Amino acid sequence: MRTIFFILRKEFRQIFRHRVMLPMIFLMPIIQLLILSNAADFEVRNIYLHVVDRDLSPASRRLIGQFAASKHFVLTQTSFSAELGFRDLEANDADLVLEIPADFEKKLLRENEASLHLNVNAINATKAGLGQAYASAIIRDFNNNLRMEWLDMPDRQNPGRFDITHSFWFNPDLNYKAFMVPGILVMLVTLVGLFLAGINVVKEKEIGTIEQINVTPIHKSQFIVGKLLPFWIIANIELGMGLAFGKLVFHIPIAGSLWVVFGFAAIYLLVVLGMGLLISTVTETQQQAMFIAYFVLVVFIMMSGLFTPIESMPGWAQKVTWFNPIAYFVDVMRMVLLKGSGWYEIRLHVYAMMAMALAVNTLAVLNYRKVGA
Amino acid sequence: MNTVISAENLTKKFGDFTAVDRISFEVFQGEIFGFLGANGAGKTTAMKMLTGLLRPTSGKAQVAGFDVYRQPELIKQHIGYMSQRFSLYEDLTVRENIEFYGGIYGLTFKEIRRKIPQLLHELGLLEVERQLVKSLPLGWKQRLAFSIALIHEPRIVFLDEPTGGVDPITRRQFWETIYQSAAQGITIFVTTHYMDEAEYCHRVSMMAQGKIAALGPPKQLKQEFQAQSMDEIFLSIARGAK
Hints:
A: abc type-2 transporter like fold; 2 domains; 4-stranded mixed beta sheet; 14 helices; B: 6-stranded mixed beta sheet; 4-stranded antiparallel beta sheet
């Protein structure tokens, strides 16, 4: 214990003395949280719409008016030729081209039926999908309104129309930030743990002090605990800061118990720090460690369900995420903060995390050698 | 005389390459034992085996009465070590370095608090106690590193090219410190490239191609090789090796 105290004191002295380290640990994550939380928003606004109106009738103008009034669309251009519309699409000046044929109103009146044509730029699949859905909804609305007016049906004769109402649970305002901030926090905490812990041990290899450590009677478990505990503490403080920030600035809900969040984080960080240590045992320089840590982090984040739902990944990829600690923590954060889940609901996550912590750290400790072969 | 280091047919192989080839020698208490050889002759490898940093391939060795295979951690408790690759933390102050190494060698807080002023006084470093080590001149750092290697009062201290890159005056001072320690009964095992330093040693061994090519007091070796200086002996051995 005494030995660990001396190592800890040394580590903290070095961390707090380092001019780049402190802002990197405490300032950068806050800035990232601010930027990412505002930017990582999947709600699609500002879909550029080009309307090819060849009808120029009251009905077509009314339809266009409804599009223009929508908060999702920006009407950039009205023209009479499909070719112009397509050119806009090609030039990226429009995401969506709505074509209203010349006989639109006529057909609507006579045949009670008319067709419209939508061209969607599907390079950005999310935007295309949502844009198409929004457009369809507007057209359906328009259609219904028109029919109600023209048929001029007295209320009692109203045919069996039904409306679907829905309610959103756990995030009733569909606040995207409430969904993203907890996930981004996970990413930031992981960043600190994985990078700093990985680099920290390698740094001693690089400057040669590890050799001096290895000729002392320090037990390797003492050295490892002394090396990793500072970052475990720092990452926990950072999580606390991030949550406070999320609450104050983004008003994220904290429905569940913070004890559950920090309890889970405690185990989770063991996994992350163990991975950092494992990386540092297989690398010789800080650059190598950085590169591997970066590689691991990118894959884990992309496959964590932070930005894209795991459920929509292909089957094999979903299986890969079983071994992704970030995926578990992102899930737990959302469950606890938004839904108010407790220990019982996240028990499987906890078991998985414990197993991973054990596996990773065993591997790392076995791989760390004081005596060369 | 008490034997504190003994090696018998100590060998280290890396794949097909034999870095240290069946070396045998003894070092006695209070002796300054010079370990010489050209770069790549196997000095550092031999030293790493004796300090418990590297596991030998075959042969026997005991350091401070402990076996290098079975008790490397006990050896570590009883030796001091100072490497050419410089072992202090540059971003810690003089005082903090002493505190850290004292602590991990198991000194109590009280002992550390007693040692620091004593040590700083001996080194003449009292006024730079709170300065970062990186701001000190190389010669001071080396003397500090040497004192820290002795902080837990080991019976043997291993010095791996301790005076690399410093001026002759500083080297001279450093060797005076070594003599003082040896006079107190501490055994000094030192590698060096400077042949004038070899003259300061009680006994020297010269390695070439993983083997010990010469072993004895400097005077005796000069007679054996009919040489005027250690330099000549070193050159004839190093050339003979090629």
